[in-house]
Design brief:
The protein is an alpha/beta fold. Helix content is 39%, strand content 17%. The protein has 14 helices and 12 strands. It has helices spanning 17-21, 44-56, 71-75, 80-96, 132-136, 143-147, 161-164, 167-174, 179-200, 225-234, 246-249, 257-263, 298-307, 334-359; strands at 2-6, 28-31, 60-65, 101-105, 116-120, 126-131, 203-207, 240-245, 268-273, 276-280, 283-286, 313-316. An 8-stranded parallel barrel has the order 1-2-3-4-7-8-9-12, surrounded by 4 helices. It has a 4-stranded antiparallel sheet with strand order 5-6-11-10. Helix 4 (80-96) runs parallel beside helix 9 (179-200) and helix 12 (257-263) packs parallel to helix 13. The protein is globular. Bound molecules: D-mannonic acid and manganese (II) ion.
Length: 360
């Protein structure tokens, strides 16, 4: 595996490349052209400039999170083809710049959903949290205003004002769109982009739905092992892969994370590792990465990744806000640096143990 940190670009991120470079074991970032709207073309010049900026700071780009998919593609509207054409051209331009991993999601309307951005934990840190009761008490248009007070002045991924201005309209368009429709539209999209992915060896890594169930009645399909395997089979190409996000798949306690990891051997192209603390199956908050701070066994998760020979980029996911830091919720420097170091420690121990037992 290759330890990375997500970086939103100098215009948007409170964390600098210089800081990231000082986290032990982090030599690459996962980044994006954050100002781009879904469906917009990324030119080779723009990608090249981003790459140069990262490289000037002594780091590399391990992949893109995300190239967002236009809603018309998810909806399967006739206008989708022009957006898929742009997506293909964007992938081609990324390939020409020697970038070979792209994370994306296929969630209608919203990216991830949380009902609190700054729930206080007993240690005084603040974290993102979710309760089903809070979602059920809201209409979708209120989602943004209910949490925006805690954004620390940042633009959060998936909650860009441009996207949210159209929430009501979008909900109208999704009326009558079923899960099977979404499968069909995902297949269509993947089949169209696979040739360019093969040509430039670009590994597509779909991000699971977060939480891993339907919110506000919208269809959602990337939620569990069975559906992930269906997606792999549906377009059986190594370039059609997964972002293994423990904090998203793990929202559903029925998802056995180490088992899912093992079943996706060879098709996990990116890993997001974070821990959640559950108070009930539908009331959870994001914890420190350490197993004992949350509900997941992080050793078993990292061990499963090691056992399947995972060699792609991995990153700590949402961190707690600690030590007075003011940053995009989930994306401060300090707790993610602790997370990266912890995961690196687990990996080193697992690897050394394995090598020793083989040499016996
Ligand atoms: C991320 C997602 O912050 C997060 O929760 O894991 O926003 C992720 O980047 C997207 O779903 C991928 O397109
Ligand atoms: Mn994730």
């Amino acid at each position: 595996m290759q330890m990375t940190l997500r970086w939103y670009g100098s215009k948007y991120d409170t964390v600098t490349l210089e800081q990231i470079r000082q986290i032990p074991g982090v030599h690459n970032v996962i980044t994006t052209l954050y100002g781009k709207q879904a469906g917009e073309l990324w030119t080779q010049e723009e990608i090249h400039a981003l790459k140069q900026e990262v490289e000037a700071a002594g780091l590399g780009i391990a992949g893109i999170e995300s190239v967002n998919v236009h809603e018309d593609i998810k909806l399967g509207l006739p206008s989708r083809d022009q957006y898929i054409d742009n997506y293909i051209k964007t992938l081609e331009n990324l390939g020409k710049e020697d970038i070979h991993m792209v994370c994306y999601n296929f969630m209608p309307v919203f990216d991830w959903t949380r009902t609190e951005l700054a729930r206080k934990r007993p240690d005084g840190s603040t974290v993102l949290a979710y309760t089903q009761e809070a979602v059920d008490a809201l209409v979708p248009e209120e989602m943004f205003s209910s949490i925006s007070g805690d954004m620390n002045g940042t633009v959060m991924p998936g909650w860009e004002p441009e996207r949210l201005a159209h929430v009501k309209e979008l909900f109208e368009k999704y009326k009558g769109v079923t899960e099977e429709d979404l499968w069909t539209n995902l297949k269509y999209f993947l089949e169209r982009i696979m040739p360019v992915c093969n040509q430039y060896d670009i590994k597509m890594a779909i991000h699971p739905d977060d939480p891993a169930w339907s919110v506000f009645g919208l269809p959602r399909i990337i939620t569990c092992k069975e559906n992930l395997l269906r997606m792999m089979d549906m377009v059986d190409d190594v370039h059609n892969g997964v972002t293994l996000c423990t904090g998203s798949l793990g929202t559903n306690l029925e998802n056995d994370l180490p088992d899912i990891i093992r079943s996706l051997k060879g098709r996990i192209h990116f890993a997001h590792v974070r821990n959640l603390k559950f108070h009930s199956p539908t009331n959870f908050e994001e914890a420190a990465h350490l197993s004992s701070d949350g509900s997941f066994d992080m050793y078993e998760i990292v061990k499963a990744l090691y056992d399947i020979g995972f060699d792609g980029p991995i990153r700590p996911d949402h961190g707690r806000m600690i030590w007075g830091e003011k940053a995009m919720p989930g994306y401060g420097l300090y707790d993610r640096a602790l997370g990266a170091t912890y995961i690196n420690g687990l990996w080193e121990a697992i690897e050394k143990n394995d090598l020793r037992s083989r040499n016996k």
